[in-house]
Amino acid sequence: MSPGSSIRISLKINGGDHELPIAACDTLLDVLRDRLGMTGTKKGCDMGACGACTVLVEGRRIKSCLALAASCDGRSITTIEGVGGVDKLHKLQAAFIRHDALQCGYCTPGQIMSGLALLEEKPASLEAIREGMSGNLCRCGAYPNIVAAIAEVAGL
Ligand code: FES
Ligand code: FES
Protein backbone atom coordinates (compact mmCIF):
# COMPACT_ATOMS: atom_id res chain seq x y z
CA MET A 1 0.00 0.00 0.00
CA SER A 2 1.43 3.40 -0.90
CA PRO A 3 1.47 6.11 1.82
CA GLY A 4 -1.13 8.20 0.01
CA SER A 5 -3.56 5.42 -0.80
CA SER A 6 -7.02 5.69 0.72
CA ILE A 7 -8.34 3.22 3.28
CA ARG A 8 -11.46 3.13 5.40
CA ILE A 9 -11.16 2.98 9.14
CA SER A 10 -13.53 3.07 12.03
CA LEU A 11 -12.74 4.79 15.31
CA LYS A 12 -14.72 4.94 18.53
CA ILE A 13 -14.00 8.42 19.85
CA ASN A 14 -15.39 9.52 23.22
CA GLY A 15 -18.01 6.80 22.84
CA GLY A 16 -19.13 7.80 19.33
CA ASP A 17 -18.52 5.78 16.16
CA HIS A 18 -16.70 7.43 13.26
CA GLU A 19 -16.08 5.67 9.98
CA LEU A 20 -14.11 7.54 7.37
CA PRO A 21 -11.65 7.22 4.52
CA ILE A 22 -8.11 8.31 5.30
CA ALA A 23 -4.73 8.26 3.60
CA ALA A 24 -2.46 5.50 4.85
CA CYS A 25 0.05 8.14 5.97
CA ASP A 26 -2.45 10.27 7.99
CA THR A 27 -1.61 10.65 11.65
CA LEU A 28 -4.25 10.23 14.32
CA LEU A 29 -3.67 13.87 15.30
CA ASP A 30 -4.44 15.18 11.82
CA VAL A 31 -7.52 12.97 11.49
CA LEU A 32 -8.85 14.20 14.84
CA ARG A 33 -8.22 17.87 14.13
CA ASP A 34 -8.61 18.27 10.38
CA ARG A 35 -11.08 15.55 9.46
CA LEU A 36 -13.25 15.32 12.56
CA GLY A 37 -12.99 18.91 13.82
CA MET A 38 -11.82 17.85 17.27
CA THR A 39 -9.37 20.67 17.76
CA GLY A 40 -9.08 20.28 21.53
CA THR A 41 -6.10 18.02 20.88
CA LYS A 42 -3.24 20.38 20.06
CA LYS A 43 -0.40 20.20 17.57
CA GLY A 44 2.83 21.51 19.02
CA CYS A 45 6.03 20.02 17.68
CA ASP A 46 4.41 17.35 15.44
CA MET A 47 7.42 15.13 16.17
CA GLY A 48 6.75 13.47 19.50
CA ALA A 49 8.63 15.89 21.73
CA CYS A 50 6.04 18.10 23.46
CA GLY A 51 3.00 16.02 24.46
CA ALA A 52 0.45 18.64 23.37
CA CYS A 53 -1.23 15.99 21.21
CA THR A 54 -1.67 13.38 23.97
CA VAL A 55 -4.83 11.26 23.77
CA LEU A 56 -5.82 7.93 25.28
CA VAL A 57 -6.08 4.84 23.08
CA GLU A 58 -7.72 1.96 24.93
CA GLY A 59 -6.98 3.92 28.11
CA ARG A 60 -3.26 4.29 27.46
CA ARG A 61 -1.74 7.66 26.65
CA ILE A 62 -0.08 8.14 23.31
CA LYS A 63 1.27 11.07 21.34
CA SER A 64 -1.20 11.22 18.49
CA CYS A 65 1.24 13.00 16.16
CA LEU A 66 3.33 9.81 16.15
CA ALA A 67 0.44 7.37 15.63
CA LEU A 68 -0.84 6.44 12.21
CA ALA A 69 -4.60 6.70 12.21
CA ALA A 70 -4.69 3.39 10.35
CA SER A 71 -3.07 1.72 13.33
CA CYS A 72 -6.01 2.86 15.49
CA ASP A 73 -8.65 1.17 13.32
CA GLY A 74 -11.30 -0.35 15.59
CA ARG A 75 -9.80 1.17 18.72
CA SER A 76 -11.42 3.23 21.43
CA ILE A 77 -9.99 6.74 21.76
CA THR A 78 -10.54 9.42 24.39
CA THR A 79 -9.74 13.05 23.63
CA ILE A 80 -10.08 16.13 25.81
CA GLU A 81 -13.56 16.66 24.35
CA GLY A 82 -14.61 13.45 26.09
CA VAL A 83 -13.28 14.38 29.51
CA GLY A 84 -15.43 17.23 30.75
CA GLY A 85 -17.04 20.48 29.75
CA VAL A 86 -17.64 23.95 31.11
CA ASP A 87 -20.79 22.75 32.87
CA LYS A 88 -19.23 19.64 34.32
CA LEU A 89 -15.49 19.76 34.75
CA HIS A 90 -13.55 16.61 35.52
CA LYS A 91 -12.00 16.86 38.98
CA LEU A 92 -8.54 17.09 37.42
CA GLN A 93 -9.65 20.03 35.26
CA ALA A 94 -11.11 21.72 38.34
CA ALA A 95 -7.83 21.12 40.18
CA PHE A 96 -5.88 22.72 37.31
CA ILE A 97 -8.01 25.84 37.71
CA ARG A 98 -7.68 25.88 41.50
CA HIS A 99 -3.90 25.54 41.29
CA ASP A 100 -3.51 28.02 38.40
CA ALA A 101 -1.81 25.22 36.46
CA LEU A 102 -1.89 26.98 33.11
CA GLN A 103 -1.06 30.27 31.51
CA CYS A 104 -1.62 30.29 27.74
CA GLY A 105 -3.40 26.94 27.95
CA TYR A 106 -1.98 25.47 24.75
CA CYS A 107 -0.35 22.51 26.48
CA THR A 108 -3.27 21.98 28.86
CA PRO A 109 -5.35 19.40 26.95
CA GLY A 110 -2.28 17.22 26.63
CA GLN A 111 -1.39 17.75 30.28
CA ILE A 112 -4.89 16.74 31.35
CA MET A 113 -4.92 13.60 29.18
CA SER A 114 -1.48 12.61 30.37
CA GLY A 115 -2.41 13.40 33.97
CA LEU A 116 -5.52 11.20 33.74
CA ALA A 117 -3.44 8.26 32.54
CA LEU A 118 -0.85 8.91 35.24
CA LEU A 119 -3.53 8.98 37.96
CA GLU A 120 -4.59 5.49 36.86
CA GLU A 121 -1.01 4.41 37.62
CA LYS A 122 -1.43 5.72 41.20
CA PRO A 123 1.72 7.84 41.55
CA ALA A 124 3.02 7.62 45.12
CA SER A 125 5.01 10.85 45.34
CA LEU A 126 5.51 14.29 43.82
CA GLU A 127 8.67 12.92 42.24
CA ALA A 128 6.64 10.14 40.58
CA ILE A 129 4.27 12.79 39.20
CA ARG A 130 7.15 14.89 37.88
CA GLU A 131 8.67 11.81 36.28
CA GLY A 132 5.34 10.62 34.90
CA MET A 133 4.59 14.00 33.34
CA SER A 134 8.05 14.53 31.89
CA GLY A 135 6.80 13.89 28.36
CA ASN A 136 4.52 16.93 28.49
CA LEU A 137 6.25 20.27 28.01
CA CYS A 138 4.87 23.65 29.09
CA ARG A 139 6.51 26.67 27.55
CA CYS A 140 4.82 28.89 30.13
CA GLY A 141 6.62 27.01 32.90
CA ALA A 142 3.53 26.04 34.89
CA TYR A 143 5.19 22.80 36.02
CA PRO A 144 5.00 23.28 39.83
CA ASN A 145 1.30 24.08 39.62
CA ILE A 146 0.59 21.19 37.23
CA VAL A 147 2.27 18.81 39.66
CA ALA A 148 0.31 20.34 42.56
CA ALA A 149 -3.00 19.88 40.72
CA ILE A 150 -2.32 16.24 39.91
CA ALA A 151 -1.05 15.64 43.44
CA GLU A 152 -4.29 16.98 44.90
CA VAL A 153 -6.38 14.55 42.85
CA ALA A 154 -3.95 11.74 43.68
CA GLY A 155 -4.48 12.52 47.37
CA LEU A 156 -0.83 13.37 48.00
S1 FES B 1 2.61 17.57 18.76
FE1 FES B 1 2.82 15.49 19.31
S2 FES B 1 4.39 15.45 20.78
FE2 FES B 1 4.35 17.51 20.09
S1 FES C 1 0.26 26.88 29.78
FE1 FES C 1 1.29 27.77 28.05
S2 FES C 1 2.45 26.13 27.25
FE2 FES C 1 1.66 25.35 29.10
TrEMBL record:
Pfam families in alphabetical order: Fer2, Fer2_2
Membrane listed as a keyword: no
Coiled-coil annotated spans: none
Keywords (A to Z) from UniProt: Iron, Metal-binding, Oxidoreductase
InterPro entries reported in the protein's UniProt record: 2Fe-2S-bd, 2Fe-2S-bd_dom_sf, 2Fe-2S_ferredoxin-like_sf, 2Fe-2S_ferredoxin-type, 2Fe2S_fd_BS, Aldehyde_Oxdr_Iron-Sulfur, Beta-grasp_dom_sf
2Fe-2S ferredoxin-type domain: residues covered: 7-83
This protein's record includes keyword Iron: yes
Family annotation (SUPFAM superfamilies): 2Fe-2S ferredoxin-like, CO dehydrogenase ISP C-domain like
Name listed for the protein in its UniProt record: (2Fe-2S)-binding protein
Organism, scientific name: Bradyrhizobium jicamae
